[in-house]
Amino acid sequence: MEINETLSQYSDLLYTTTVAIYVLALLFTLFEQAFGAKGRLAAERSRKRVLVGAGGPDTDDAAIENGDVPAEPEAPRAVGRAERIGRMGAALLVLGALLQLSAIVLRGLAVHRAPWGNMYEYGMAVTFITVVAWLVVIKKFPVRHLTGFLLLPVVILMFINGTMLYTVAAPVVPALQSYWLYIHVSAAIIGSGVFLVPGVASVLYLFRTAHDRNPAKFAGFGPKLPSADVLDRIAYRATIVAFPIFTFGVLCGAVWAEAAWGRFWGWDPKETVAFIAWVVYAAYLHSRATAGWRGTRAAVINIVGFSVTIFNLFFVNLVTAGLHSYAGVS
Amino acid sequence: MTTTEAPPKNPQPYRPSAAKQFLAFLRNTWRGLTSMRTALVLLFLLALAALPGALLPQRRLNAPKVDEYISAHGWWGSLLDKLEFYDVYSSVWFSAIYILLMISLIGCLTPRSFEYLKQMRAKPVLTPRNLARMPHHRIARTARTPETIRDDVRKQLSGWRRVEREEDGGGFSVSAERGYLRETGNLLFHFGMLGLIIFFALGKLYSYEGQVIVQANGGQFCNSGIYNYDSFEAGLRVDGTDLDPFCVKVNDFTARYTATNQADYYHSHIEYQSGQDLQTGTWKPYDLEVNEPLRTVGDRVYLLGNGYSPQFTVTFPNGEKRTQNTQWMFTNPATMLSEGATKFDQPGVTDEVQRRTKQLAITGLFAPSSFIHGGVLTSTAPQLNNPMVAVDVLRGDLGLDAGRGQSVFSVDQSRVQDGRLKRVARKNLAVGQELTLDDGTKVRFDGVNKWVNLQISHDPTQGYVLGFAIVMFAGLGASLLVKRRRVWVRVRPGKDEGASTVIEVAGLARTDQAGYGEEFQRISERLVTGRKGS
Ligand code: HEM
Asked: What is the pTM assigned to this prediction?
């Protein structure tokens, strides 16, 4: 079928706009991170109260509540300027995500197939998933002010993707014309996209724990980060969401490879690096169940996984030639 | 080896026998190997060891590139070769890591399986005396009586495994646990992985894979022996004597391209016979496409590639004619500009020496959509729009029976250099055109056929691998989604007449704490207030 050039141009335009909006959101939330400590600490404190609300281990037995009367809701807090800007940043993030989604959909309409048939499209979809995953995280944890740290790699990757890896809209080669393109690649996209979130959380975790051990280190930056425990929890939860999806993606890839290339596993570079990433994340999950490996070491393993994921997304096709080289870049 | 016993009365130093020492060594090795930490280190080593396979060219995938790489990197290249870095996944060190990991896995799974069986029958633990020590805890007064609370707790915790125990002072406690499926899932996951690895390794022994070029104008291939293949690779337990017998006949090949000459669609009508059909000679039709291999008698036939075979007819001076249709190989997949060598023996020449001066080879370029620029033939598109060849005709000794196998796509260049093969003509020919050599021999370019490259694969274990992969995936889901957690409830009647009952709820997540806080919040709210859900 013919490629719809107009739609593809609109898609490109939306992509560029998305990057610009993300940069704005990055600046806004960075502002909140830098100047919004007060409001945020308050948020965290109230949050803590809700979480362990009904008495942590240190609760005095005398403080017996009246079980028949539900607790009063929290009184609304005053909102500071930095926090208002942070909220605007989050709103921009939502707007950017919507624009990026439209860019993906238009691309798909332009080429009449799943909009992830080459590296440019793949990178566009992965970064979209990362942003969506982050939106879920900031809904569940009071970490909106960290958005800038997540957006930094996202914006860099989107920039590389939109310049070096850009590919004009085109149909895909016969091997990619299969319903497995929908199943395998979308699972890989969701898995990899979500994997970028724990990577960022783990990096921040290292900063935070270094500061906790020695308050002189990162004295300005450290205290503004959420507690190490919160960062660890974000990393773990995001990883256990992404890991099964990624596993599913790899398994589907094997089933597809059996039909398309004649073998289900052939140590093609892309397969190999996916395998490595899988093993590294399995090691991360293990490390959290192994005495002496929790905490810092687990975070380091997660960051290794993050690096392998990025390498797999953006560089394998550039440095090696394999069957997966449908990148459309040369 | 810590012991609190009194020192032995015998002053002689105790020296364990060699056998005992050896046993101790074995036991320690086994313990070390099956510890979680070792598994972790082995996992890392596996990831690390797999890496060079992605970065260095691999012989299995691209042998010529390996040779190129070795010659470009001198001693370093050869050293890597000696250390098996171009065959990473069959190297001694890679195999060692995964065998160790397998042993570690077995050693870790065996005791855990027994533990698991024991746990399945065990009752939830006693309610601790001091519930306030638990990570989640809540205590409240309520006007409800202990007996209504008892009924309520039973209802609220109906999906949980629980025990009730009466306590001194007229109260009672409930100890409840749920999430055993996590352990089940975890074991399934690891056993699934073990099975997957074992069958993957077995598959490497019993599988084979071969490639063959077949003319797409009724050309046939029969899987009757290795010699029918152009290339063949097999596991150690395959000697090629009893391949699954079947035959395929390739009737045509169609390729469709986009306006920008990108391949869009490949299709080949084939016929095949296997099993009974081989005796009766019946052919069954099949539409062979990319992503749609033919599956028959345990083998799979794939459409991997395609190309052109220019057809030449040579009319020798004595009037005899010979026609050949040999595959040429494209050098540029985008335009299908191809190279090749079509070789002829002059018929009727019996004298060996004579014969070796008269052999002919038609070499050169073939362009499906020809374009001549400055006398040089190029191709502008992969389709057959205006096919043309630019041939060099060589005459002399091709060395076909020199005992060395030679490529069907080229002549032995050393024979051209030392003069045993001489170029006797060079010309561009369109379909139907011919050229005449000095001795009167005529070479005519008749037209073009297509060929397809088929791959035949056989792997008897891949179904098992898939089965274990599914087990593994299901187990993974359960082990990551299900949380193992405990709840305790203790209810004490009020001390004085009419005083309200005290209800205490505590919780502990046996596995990761993440996320249990919210759930405990919900459960304890319901238990304390006696209201359904919120
Ligand atoms: C081939 C290597 C292995 C891989 C890829 C692997 C993978 C995994 C994965 C992904 C989990 C996460 C499930 C969860 O968090 O519940 C897990 C959990 C676990 N694995 Fe392995 N495993 C391997 C080998 C081993 C070995 C050799 C042992 C024992 C020494 C082991 C012991 C465990 C244990 C105890 C858990 C539970 C941890 C938890 O509940 O969080 N694994 N494994």
From this structure: 0.85
